[in-house]
């Protein structure tokens, strides 16, 4: 059965079901993954009289695509905060018995893919702290901060209590630092005032949902890099990463949480406060891949944007072919648009195994050599003798497309023309997407024809950045396109103060560790990072180049 840890005997219980606290899946147990990783999904509900744990469970189900490493729910009943979390998918972490035990009038939920810190139980969210006054705080975070090292220095000056032993925090995420700093200040000022004082000091991307025993809070960084929306229930309120999660729980869409805004929801209603001047820079990659197609961002349907992306791709990179097929599922809307724009028939040439998750039992070497077939298998009768247009959302390392092109040729395709529904990814993301280092991004060192030769396609065409922006129907001035153009809207610190495992490398003092130096040397040797600064650091796994 489950084990539990009592962080504070009267205020909070954090429970880890079915797993050792420090268990983490082996990198080798994830041989087939998309070339990039999502970030996280957050969900919060304030609804007295409703089953808030089940509402949060279904909300997280709708956000499962944003992270598959861990899931958790915190519930608050006016007297205490209870957090239940574990490594795994939402359906693996929670069952009927667990959900029925989580009772309260408000809840915070999180589904995680790590962009800071390793995959450990401690790093799963919601993260929790007890204040000096004895109240609890539970917090979920989508995004990534760029001043994590400075925050760690600040936390290091606090007394060793509630999560610190010998000057080291047990969790190693920027989210945990946020929660610790909130707890340190909240005992004196209250959580709302503590948030108003802390949030302006957080640099980077953050969409936060957090709570104490009485009140639900939601906050979005002044650039609004990651989405966050507010919805209305008949007897309460909901905040979530995407509008699709509001739909699932029957909430009506009210509006987006504004950049630089803090919302507080309790028995007195909703309060809105401004902690920063809005400078919108929403992530354009949400339209390409990250968000669900049934989500709306900034008033634009993601599905409609992706179909338009495909139409524009057909205009920019036409080709004579017999069939347009998507790489399911993320390439499907763009492939539909490409077929419409080119008047080439659309078809399903690849079958996806929907049950292959991020972590599954490590295959034997014989099965591993089958590579991409664990996830995608060709329909030979459809493919044989055809000139194919294959539409995918992006190329990051090129490993997936290389294996896919080879498989299609082996299945009888006469020609394979690859069309990509985004520009070349040449720069790492530091705002919440787990891209690799710049040295690992295939387009950072090769031109389009070089990438084409690398993946073995007959032709290769990327959507232009102007075409992508036009399809989003947002002005370029309100979008972050840094992974495509290298224009980072939030200034980055020095390289030694960036990186996915920064907090695991830092002790009581901030030091430049050998791993960071080795990463820099590797990038320099690869000849792809001529610039000084943080561009050789990324948030991808170190073994990324060795993966299929």
From TrEMBL:
Domain called Glutamine amidotransferase type-2: residue spans: 40-268
Cofactor-binding details, from the entry: Binds 1 Mg(2+) ion per subunit. Binds 1 [4Fe-4S] cluster per subunit.
GO molecular function annotations of the record: 4 iron, 4 sulfur cluster binding; amidophosphoribosyltransferase activity; magnesium ion binding
Listed pathway(s): Purine metabolism; IMP biosynthesis via de novo pathway; N(1)-(5-phospho-D-ribosyl)glycinamide from 5-phospho-alpha-D-ribose 1-diphosphate: step 1/2
InterPro entries referenced in this protein's UniProt entry, alphabetically: GATase_2_dom, Ntn_hydrolases_N, PRTase-like, PRTase_dom, PurF, PurF_N
Keyword flag 4Fe-4S: yes
Biased composition regions of type Polar residues, renumbered to the chain: 1-13
Names of the cofactor(s): Mg(2+); [4Fe-4S] cluster
SUPFAM superfamilies assigned: N-terminal nucleophile aminohydrolases (Ntn hydrolases), PRTase-like
Annotated positions binding Mg(2+): 330, 392-393
Residues annotated as the enzyme's active site: 40 (nucleophile)
Keywords: 4Fe-4S, Glutamine amidotransferase, Glycosyltransferase, Iron, Iron-sulfur, Magnesium, Metal-binding, Purine biosynthesis, Transferase
Catalyses which reaction(s): 5-phospho-beta-D-ribosylamine + L-glutamate + diphosphate = 5-phospho-alpha-D-ribose 1-diphosphate + L-glutamine + H2O
Transferase found in the keyword field: yes
A GO BP annotation: purine nucleobase biosynthetic process
Ranges annotated as biased composition (Low complexity): 15-27
Pfam families: GATase_6
EC annotation from Swiss-Prot or TrEMBL: 2.4.2.14
Similarity comment text for this entry: In the C-terminal section; belongs to the purine/pyrimidine phosphoribosyltransferase family.
The protein's name in its UniProt record: Amidophosphoribosyltransferase
Organism: Pseudonocardia asaccharolytica DSM 44247 = NBRC 16224
């Amino acid at each position: 059965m489950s084990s539990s840890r009592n962080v504070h005997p009267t205020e909070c219980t954090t429970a880890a079901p079915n797993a050792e606290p420090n268990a983490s899946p082996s990198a080798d147990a994830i041989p087939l993954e998309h070339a990039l990783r999502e970030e996280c999904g957050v969900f919060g509900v304030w609804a007295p009289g409703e089953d808030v744990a089940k509402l949060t469970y279904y909300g997280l189900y709708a956000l499962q695509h944003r992270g598959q490493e861990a899931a958790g729910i915190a519930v608050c009943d006016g007297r205490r905060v209870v957090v239940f979390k574990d490594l795994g998918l939402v359906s693996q972490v929670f069952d009927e018995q667990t959900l029925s035990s989580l009772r309260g009038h408000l809840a915070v939920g999180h589904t995680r893919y790590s962009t800071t810190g390793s995959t450990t139980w401690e790093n799963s969210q919601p993260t929790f702290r007890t204040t000096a006054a004895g109240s609890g705080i539970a917090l979920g975070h989508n995004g990534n901060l760029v001043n994590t090292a400075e925050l760690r220095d600040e936390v290091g000056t606090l007394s060793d209590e509630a999560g610190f032993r010998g000057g080291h925090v047990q969790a190693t995420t920027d989210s945990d630092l946020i929660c610790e700093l909130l707890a340190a200040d909240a005992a004196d000022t209250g959580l709302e005032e503590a948030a108003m004082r802390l949030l302006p000091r957080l640099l980077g991307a953050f969409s936060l949902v957090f709570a104490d025993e009485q009140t639900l809070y939601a906050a979005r960084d002044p650039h609004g890099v990651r989405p966050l929306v507010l919805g209305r229930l008949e007897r309460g309120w909901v905040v979530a990463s995407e509008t699709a999660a509001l739909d699932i729980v029957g909430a009506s869409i009210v509006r987006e949480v504004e950049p630089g805004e803090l919302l507080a929801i309790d028995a007195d209603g909703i309060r809105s406060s401004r902690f920063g001047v809005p400078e919108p820079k929403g992530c354009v990659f949400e339209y390409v891949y990250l968000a669900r197609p049934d989500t709306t961002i900034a008033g634009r349907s993601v599905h409609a944007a992706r179909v338009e992306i495909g139409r524009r791709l057909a205009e920019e990179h036409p080709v004579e072919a017999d069939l347009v097929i998507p790489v399911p599922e993320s390439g499907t809307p763009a492939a539909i648009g490409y077929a419409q724009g080119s008047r080439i028939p659309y078809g399903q040439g690849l079958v996806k195994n929907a049950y292959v998750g991020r972590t599954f039992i490590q295959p034997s070497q014989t099965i591993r050599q089958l590579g991409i077939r664990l996830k995608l298998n060709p329909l030979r009768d459809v493919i044989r003798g055809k000139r194919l247009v294959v539409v995918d959302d992006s190329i990051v390392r090129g490993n997936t497309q290389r294996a896919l092109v080879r498989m299609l040729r082996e299945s009888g395709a006469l020609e394979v023309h690859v069309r990509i529904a985004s520009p070349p990814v040449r720069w790492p993301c530091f705002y919440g997407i787990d891209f690799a280092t710049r040295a690992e991004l295939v387009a950072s060192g090769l031109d389009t024809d070089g990438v084409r030769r690398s993946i073995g396609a007959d032709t290769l065409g990327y959507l232009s950045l102007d075409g992508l922006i036009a399809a989003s129907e947002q002005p370029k001035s309100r979008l972050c396109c840094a992974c495509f153009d290298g224009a980072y809207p939030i200034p980055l610190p020095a390289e030694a103060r960036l990186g996915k495992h920064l907090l695991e490398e830092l002790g009581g003092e901030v030091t430049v560790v050998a791993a960071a130096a080795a990463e820099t040397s590797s990038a320099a040797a690869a000849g792809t990072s001529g610039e000084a600064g943080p561009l050789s650091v990324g948030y991808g796994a170190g073994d990324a180049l060795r993966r299929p």
